[in-house]
Structures
1.
Amino acid sequence: MAKSLGPVKRKFSPWTDPTSVPFIRFENITKRFGNFVAVDNLTLDIYEREFFALLGPSGCGKTTLMRMLAGFEEPTEGRILLQGKDLAGVPPYRRPTNMMFQSYALFPHMTVEKNIAFGLEQDNLPKADIAARVEEMLKLVKLEQFAKRKPSQLSGGQRQRVALARSLAKRPKVLLLDEPLGALDKKLREETQFELTDLQHTLGLTFLIVTHDQEEAMTVSDRIAVMDKGVIMQVATPAEIYEAPNSRYVADFIGDINIIEGAVVSNSGAASGGVMLDCDGLKVVVDQECPASAGDRVAFAIRPEKVRLGIDPPTDTAVNAGAGEVWDIGYLGDFSLFLVKLDDGRIIRAAQANIQRLVDRPLTFGDRVWVHWSRDAGLVLTR
Amino acid sequence: MAIDTLSPKPEPVIADPGRANPARWLVVAIPYLWLLLFFAAPFFIIAKISLSDTAIAMPPYTPVFEGFGKFGEFFSQLDFENYEFLASDSLYIKSYLNSLRIAAISTVLLLLIGYPMALAMARAKTSIRPILVMLVILPFWTSFLIRVYAWIGILKPEGLLTLLFQSIGLMGPDEQVQILRTDYAVFIGIVYSYLPFMVLPLYAALEKLDNTLLEAASDLGCPPWKAFWRITFPLSLPGVIAGSLICFIPITGEFVIPDLLGGADTLMIGKTLWTEFFNNRDWPLASAIAVILLAVLVIPIAYFQNQQQKAG
């Protein structure tokens, strides 16, 4: 393919190199709590210096997976390898991983300084070394003036930074972040997300983040594993996950999307005519390599921002287009989301960036409009 | 760095709707009136009696307040004679010191037994915790006196303990346990009776403890036994202090347990006070003993208050 998916954050992709050795390997991991299967025969490789995100709804097993790496839970079946060494039976206090807890879990009876020093003291380092490292950490998270405070005397954002400093102080081989930014407000969260990526690049550590917030996962990570019911649905870069989801589940979980069920009419490959679908009368053609053959039930998925919206009909109204009326409008500031009710009753979501401050004739409820899209804007999903 | 985090924000002014409400005043006033009537007033009477002299009369002390006409005369008869006597006779000082010693040792024993119990309760499954708490409170369903008497039945030379030791062959048929009427019996009785008062505050403190703190400690390389001393114990200190004082203070003045289980040589201030009051009918001296006892105990109470304030 000449075209590629989305922006490339950095030249780093050891997962595409067959010779590279995974840093962490989850090998056929199953974890049961009584009858409940939290993680189901899961295999996953994470590479050194990677910022890896486990993304999924609550109860999908992502936290359990992380807790097994930290040593708080033992897998029922399978094994976890860190740098090729099996971690089975190694207690949490002997593992080279450190975790930043969702609740931060700061020790309330210790000052900020003491909290950060706690892990270092366990290694019996010389006092001067500990003091130096604590100072370095405080500087890193910009909390120098707060060294003598107790956690209860800090704001939420400051506590979060103490927790981060404490988990980084020992220079763990892997830093585990459990919903680290959940308790912060949106502005602070965005700011911290970028700080986190910067930090990871500077320190060159491997980060594993667990989150249910797709935006957070997208912003910080090199790769994302989307999980559901103890199983990994897709592992890919943020751009791939968003632009080329492999299933209805992933497409629907990440971002906003129109999913239209239909059947394959013909499939002649991306280069020669593409995949033709009939979605209950709506004709769709997609330039895509796809394993489906004629007659298969599939889904056509297209992101709202890739749907074009206009009062005038497109040049070709037979395929990839539909007429209808504006049924609802969501004004979100940076862009507006239009819900267009097609004449067959189907609702199509179309997003338009508000690139002009003043428009001659704004679209409004009940306006007759056309929605249409190009042949490479959408995606055929077989799963 | 945000500036508002550096300087304390002014407290928002919220109008207090209940300030002018007389019903609110009443609610606060009732317990204070109660304390005034049944603690402060009796205390002043005791304090006054402690400054009087014994008399073969009814009441058995003099002077008796006979109205404001003889006010000057009344006051001139009050003196510190009884306190001087307390200081001069080593019996009383020994009684105080021995009471404090027994209370201190008992409190340490209670902590050693109660802490693991409370910890086990706090770490038990959430579903069985209420049952465990119930079991700790269960002894209160029978009278305190009956329970102490039951210990006599267990500890006396021909009692249940002797029978048990004889039946398992630990003792010959002629041997008997010699525990009753010793300090050991007093310690057994005190530790048994006060255990719930130690366990419950400890449990309350330990139950609140966030388990993720221990996970965090472990994650940072701290093995469980070290984490106990660095995390669990320091965070349970308010419970330790509360439990210790709730036990230490009443044990110091304990009368029933040393009287029933202790020997003639078990000197405790509660017993001494009883003897002075009922056997010797020396009300002024008994009152002086009570006042001094209160003064001695005010020190740990004040310390406790201070600690509470610091924690809050």
2.
Amino acid sequence: MPNSTKKIEISNLTVKYGQVAAIKGISFDIYKNEIIGIIGPAQSGKSTLLKVINRTIEFVPGVAVGGTVKIDGEDTQKVKSVHELRRKIGMVFPLPVGLPLSIYDNVAFAPRMAGTRNKAQLDELVERCLRQAALWDEVKDRLDSLGTKLSGGQQQRLTIARALSHEPEILCLDEFSIAVDPVTTMRIEDVLKELRFQVTIILVTNLVQQARRLANRTAFLFNGDLIEIDRTDVIFSENPTDKRTYDYVNGIFG
Amino acid sequence: MANQRRLGNLSEPIIEGLIRLCGISAILFVIGIFFFVFREGSGFLFSKLNLKEFLTSIEWYPDSPSNKRYGVLALMAGTASVTVLAMMIAVPFGLGAAIFISEFCSRRARETFKIVIELLAAIPSVVWGFIGLTVMNPIIIDLFKAPIGLNVLNGGIILALMSVPIIVSIGEDALKAVPDSYREASLALGATRWQMIYRVLLPAAKNGLLAAALLGVGRGIGETIAVLMATGHAVQIPHSILDPVRTLTATIAAELGETPVRSDHYQVLFIIGILLFSITFVVNLVADLVVKGIRGK
């Protein structure tokens, strides 16, 4: 079971794209080594939330962020090096982004950026990450070929391997299973269940059942508001606090 | 109704035919130009010209009454020296500017820069030559204590200024074509902006960037009037960048009007044209092979 140390504290977070409010003042904590599921229909601010956490939101023109996000008690807006911050966080996007590099270099990218040069160390790390992402057996004989030439599902697992490569403390997954077949999805879910003992996992998903299978707690976002956050079994029970939560997870709207 | 449909059925093959015609005509024009240039020069090329002397002698005396000599080595050296110098300046500056505009500028600054650069590309080459003649010339004399400011350096700088806009706009297009998801992914992995550019953007855009540089080279080899005005027009192999030279193109431009049609001299100038054709062909071919090589990897 997750312990009760707060890993991420989000308070009064607001995000505006120009005039459009994407997140309208939400507050909640994420505990160390839990899997937190974030569900909600499109446009509810789920992906925006992840971008705020690793501060890639800054590259969106005309964005305004209010409130604070603290990681390990430290305000992300006030950290000394934003690159250090981002290295603490692994990010997996909805569609696989194989960088135009070899499979090996894709996984070794972040460690090299952080200054690791030792070949043996990199070899070991690449193999471990690819194994964790359930991809090693399929690519071990062609690590030099381009990552972009893999199939969609393989590329997504490559992305996951890459997100693990800098040994993040937090792993954010943004609808990772969109481009992955059901069998591979299950394998990755098994991997996540293993990983939760080492990292804190934020799982944004459109598949409410995925949150139900994996998450310790689940947050329901709707239109930029946090409707409800609770233990997953409560969210998916017959009587969550908010009627809209019940309606959403049971497919009555959304 | 039936009429309309018949028209619709007819328009398809007509449009297809027109497009085909455009494509074929482009090829026909190139072949036509080559054929014409070759015909004008071929008589002399196959009868009297000593090809070895033509390519290896530096003696270019087409007007000598007693002993006409046609050696273009010095002219080739002139073209090569000016082009190489121009590219040494223009490629780093052009690619640097392309990276700056595409990655570091705010949107408004970017639009301003692009307008300015397009304006720069629209300046006619004779104006560039004029700048070389009247602005650069005294500056170079002053700065380097050179006897004359019309030389390789002057021509190279003018040519660089002319190629930079091409390199920048094509290079910038190539960088813009790299999907944003690459940028996002590498930054999310903790790369700094420069690491992202160096490790991800440049490899991803290398085909386009190479094409940009090679188009600049093409421009350099083919440019005539500006280098004619800026390089000093002396037939010799340069020993320093302060020596005046003459290029292949400038020779054609300067002398063609003065020669009687179908005279030996006239035909030799067309042979120089063939030579230029071959050089550009080789450059393009190499570029193509290099790009294919990169893609195949």
3.
Amino acid sequence: MAPVATTEPLHLDALGPRGTYRTRVPSTVTDVAGAPIARLSLVPPLYVVRAIDALRQAPPIAAADLETVFATAGEAFAAGTVGGLSVREYERHVSRTSGTPLAVVRAATRGTARFVRHAASSADRGRPRGAARDLSDHVLHETHTVWARQGDVFAVNASGNHPGVHRVWLEALALGYRVAVRPSRREPFTPYRLVAALRQAGIRDDQLMLLPSDHATADTLVHGADRAVVYGGDDAVAKYAHDARILPQGPGRSKILITADTDWRGHLDALVASVAGESGTACVNATAILVEGDPAPLAEALAARLAVLPSLPPQDERARLPVCPKERARALSAYLKAVAAGTHAWLGSDGIADDLGDGSAVLRPAVHQTASARAPQLRTELPFPCVWVAPWTRADGMAPLRNTLVLSALTRDRDLWEALIAEPSIANVYFGDQPTHWMSPGVPHDSYLSDFLMRSKAVYEGPS
Amino acid sequence: MPIGSFTVLDAGPFDGVDPDDYVRAAMQWHFAPETGSRYWLERADRLGFDPRHDVKGVADLALFPDLTGELRDVQVSDLVPRGYGPQARPLHVFESGGTTGAPKRVVQMDDWARHGSEQVTRRLRDHALPVGALWLTVAPTGPHLVGDVLHQAAASLGSPGLGVDMDPRWVKKLIAAGRRNEVDAYTDHLVDQCRRILLGQDIGVIAATTPMLERFARDSDLVEVINGRAQAIIWGGTHMDPDTRDLLRTEVFPDVPLIGMYGNTMMLTALLERVGLTASEPCVFDPVSPYVFLSIVDPDTGQQVAEGERGQVVVSHVSKSMLIPNNRERDTALRVRSAGGHVGDAVADVAPVPAVEGETVIEGVY
């Protein structure tokens, strides 16, 4: 008698120094409705320690191979079957587990593939003009400077809010670091696919790893690496603020400033996109809009545009809003309600959780108007289209604009342009009709990653 | 009260007494006015049942509520059974780890120290531990039971023991406060002491906590000397997940048998890994009749779970020295059928109770 075919659950194994590694009792990855989707092997600290050792022993990827490797991997990521999943299956899993609308996931697949293809050249963009690539670079004889790594092993404690977060560490690989990625337990599919695609393209098992783990073990990884990027909230930022080896990526608190010389009506599409594009789950989505003049008409128009976005399951091609387990949606809704006390709600006053009836709920947009640009609510970034609209005056000055990942400024005031560029706590400034979530390979996100990973070293070659 | 029933209570671990007889004798001892401790005699009125009458065997230990919380405040002298005589003093007073508030205290009289140590030694011999080999024990001593159990075990195998002490409460405090650098510095301090011993002495047996073994695994000089010289590694004091256990056995210390030990203060002894487990089997710990009984229950209902299922570990310690019935540990384990004629469940893959993750909102998109 032939054996009865059983459906083997989808396994996301760790991708360690000796290939795949499956734990005895993998944890379950569930979708937004609580249904099991995959089994994820969470490795113990001892495995992480040994993996880091192997990374440290491994050589950097040969510079000569970089272009081919990234080109091949980008192709596989965008269109191939990787880890047993076609790109369509992959995208559906990402959508169902992270709650990210399918259209956003698909756009992210294409976007990430582009970042993969350009990883080597974009990493090189951050190289100081005086620094030679390596000892064979002829500019060395003139500048006596070489661009050198500050360590060997780079780790990422990643988040699962948007598939695009994994574009960051590609540059570390291009710079010669050996890389370990700890995926989000909610959405491990993207880093799995990316790591597997790069390995397929020729990167060795001991040069790039996927090390899923629990929270405590993630600390072992972060502290075992020479340089690490950690995604988290304000607590993570505070925790790592004083460790020069760790670059925390906290809330973006991206903002839009519109001065009186510019009519916002001509830019409503960009405003809507800044708040709700990428389903509003990215650190580059606008959290606050500051308006010189009466903010009410803008808030009203924005609310009207966002109100018509449909509530749909994430895998629906027409979906534009994020979805999450209904308990979390209710918690977010209650939290927003508490934070918003004292503000005027243009959208979302009845709560933002829209139950889909299967255990999941859509996070609907919220638009609130505050009385002043200094209202504390302007700092509240939440993982769905949620924006605070506030009046801004010249007297308010720079203070409400500080601590911002992306500031889009709709203004013709050239002095203001200069002031925004000069402000140290604003990471990126976009002028004119450009949504806050615009990104491109080779353009810094939070400075060049190489500012954190590399240093310039004097190298003098005298007669020997 | 016939003196005969107290003879049952004096039984050693290999005297083959009937566990039900033993439990009945223990009830007489702990709840008779002439022999019981002040704590139990005063507590008996509020139990709602008469242990001397109603507890007819091991199964009836389930009648007791979990009273171990009271051990945080009871005077130590009130825990000593009067039957030991007015001059009797405990050999040791041990305290629980103190992770959840004030520590709980237990007393160990001479006879239990002897019986407890005897069963540990016998099981170590079953694991073919060498006699007379030099031990290195890296475990907490002082108020903590585990260090004493290991030192006794070494002594009873005729083995001189070297030790490195540690203060787990301080480490836990540092971890809770996020003072990671200090944790690392303290750990390095322990490893430095161990290195001097491991590289300088011919250590045959290493007994250490799981985190220390994991830390040894990072240093190739230590791994090399352990693989080269050690004849056994005993781990205990904390949990070891099955994947770590497998990595230690197959990749880090492939040349040295790795023997698990599960115990805690309320058990007043330690259980050794079952002898002869194959590589694919989980780490099983059998109970010790007639002193230590285990059951695995559903944490919500208190009902025993099915064999092979995971549940909360409930431990009863019954000896002349102390009675600690129905202690719900902060451990979970798979329920396994016990071997070797011991009564009650055996446990496998012991793990900490998972932390509950609530729906708290942390601002930001990550």
4.
Amino acid sequence: MLKLPVYLDNNATTPMDPRVLETMIPYFMENFGNAASRNHPFGWAAEEAVDYAREQVAQLIGADPKEIIFTSGATEGDNLAIKGVYEMYASKGNHIITVTTEHKAVLDTCKHIEKTGGEVTYLQVKEDGLIDIKELEAAIKPTTILISIMYANNEVGVIQPIKEIAALAKKNGVLFFSDATQAVGKIPVDVIKDGIDLMTFTGHKMYGPKGIGALYVRRKNPRVKVTAQMDGGGHERGMRSGTLNVPGIAGFGKACELCRLEMDKDAAHTSVLRDKLENALCQIEESYVNGNKEHRLPHVANISFKHVEGEGLLMGFNKNIALSSGSACTSASLEPSYVLKALGLGDDLAHSSLRFGLSRFTTEEQIDYTIEQITNTVLKLRDMSPLWEMYKEGIDLNSIEWAHH
Amino acid sequence: MAYSDKVIDHYSNPKNVGTLDKASKSVGTGLVGAPECGDVMRLQIEVDDATGIIKDAKFKTFGCGSAIASSSLATEWLKGKTVDQAVTIDNMDIVEELNLPPVKIHCSVLAEDAIKAAINDYRVKNGLEQLVFEEKGVH
């Protein structure tokens, strides 16, 4: 029997794996110690748990445990990496290169840096969501200190050419930071093979707890340092003060270990279901997959249904299926997704998109149900859509003079 | 966001979805909104030439649940009214009836605009002057 509601918003957050919860529980009451307490068994037990988790986290991304800085999550990691590099390397330059489709935690951090006198270049993406490596090369200047480009996009799931970006950064003596929040745990990420200098990721996108993440900071070739953004006890090699979240860290470590061991299985499972979902929904007339289909996360799909509006579409089933719309229509601004707009989608398609994020817990029954519900709702709303009627009559919607608000 | 029961009801069972013959002299059509704003409403009225009573009203809407509900409700209210009575329908009546939250008030404004546009289309077709309405400006 299908249990409702179905959860397909795993790019927002994943449920925790029960094995992760089990790992965390002893660190709330039995082993509650402060990992920085060096003089008693409570502290030792906590420190041991942190050390073990640090190894689990490092192993997932091919790093040395010493290169892992625990944070509260990806947003903090983005802030610490970008502001930290900007401040630490101020004598070398003040120019940062990023991309228009980055997460707000990166874009708004860059905006902050612009206000304090830094210079930021925002690269456009191609229609498939990938950057043009030549444009990146052309944007590098003698004052460039950092390239900040996400590993995989949170809305469309496209995977950027990380190795090429890293090679370009290295050739020009520029540091490369990647927000890998959606990629780590889902696809193989290896900071050495990929050539990444700094990288952020978080527990709750990979079946771990919320409120715990990590920033990878390279220690060799080159040795990278970031200026701390919080002053205090000098934890995490002085880069991130604050008492360590021991249960969170233990859970995050376990989540990383499970992702490393089960990644192939998870990816095979989600990609089969994702493809089934995508193929079925593309049977609907005038539906389009957004973003590059080849260089893409295995569990993500972003589909636009022309001439129906995203929020209206969600309303047809959002009691029973948890999904997100590319359209941020609930805000007063009525602006559709800036990521989809950056891919060159017209407002009509950008307003009509759904983002699907599957997980290791998604079942075929859930996908079948989703296909049926969405198909029915799209067809029903098109019967109600004046745009669909005009399209069917062969009227060019661009030829109409709309009363813009 | 939680929708009111009335919005959900109109969304699930919209009243008067459809198309009237826009070439007919007794039909007035109003098309308002824009695809890039995420809302387009088309509202049509069919007027009994002898009595001036709106004998049928239909809508089609591209938009969120509140936009669909606003236009569905508008068609219900229009039927049986004279054109002169229809002019007086105010967007705030729709807001009240559907319990629309502040961010959705523009949906009701759009419905009011659609009613007025349909009435003016009917008037022009029948050799009458267009009525001039005050801008609501809450879009």
